[in-house]
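Issue 218. Parser rejects a valid record. Input:
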Amino acid sequence: MSQPSSGRRRKYCKRSCRQRAYEHRQMTSRLHLPEGTVVLTEAEATSIAERAFMLRCAAEDLQTAVDEGASTKEIGELAAELVRSAREAERIR
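Output the parser choked on:
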């Protein structure tokens, strides 16, 4: 997200993000949920759990390879997979 050279910094990357934030605030207000509440569908929660599991598996694979004295090439490949899994796990929706 590019920031303007002067004035206040942008809070949202684009208008659609600002709109989703507004809708979220309205919904949590209507349902009397505490501020900062995050609402996910069951599918979204499952997806987050699956990505966290894949991240843990990638980390364990790398740890096993290190413990077993794997080659530098294999460790590099596993490290790259760990980074890919971490990037995927960062994605909220």
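Fixed in the parser; the record now loads. The two ends are 18 Å apart (CA to CA).
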